[in-house]
UniProtKB/TrEMBL annotation:
GO terms for biological process: translation. It comes from Propionicimonas paludicola. This is Large ribosomal subunit protein bL31B. The keyword Ribonucleoprotein applies. HAMAP family: Ribosomal_bL31_2 (MF_00502).
Length: 81
């Protein structure tokens, strides 16, 4: 394997402000922001959506379409069984 071609792998904190979720994990993502977390300073990455704020994972999903896709297709194209 070639030397000095891979990005630095380090501990990084990801923060989703809309879902009030902060977690630390390993990543190679580059960022200039830092945060104090668990008594140490880590690079910080703000994300727009995570499992805490995503409608599917948070249980805040709305069902807009009450008619099923198969029934709608059959009605639209005249396909019957």
């Amino acid at each position: 394997m070639k030397a000095n071609i891979h990005p630095e792998y380090r501990q990084v904190v990801f923060r989703d402000r809309s879902g009030d979720l902060v977690f630390r994990t390993g990543s190679t993502i580059a960022t200039d922001k830092t945060i104090e977390f668990d008594g140490a300073t880590y690079p910080l990455v703000d994300v727009e959506i995570s499992s805490a704020s995503h409608p599917l994972w948070s249980g805040r999903e709305r069902v807009v379409d009450t008619e099923g896709r198969v029934e709608r297709f059959q009605r639209r194209y005249g396909v019957t069984r």
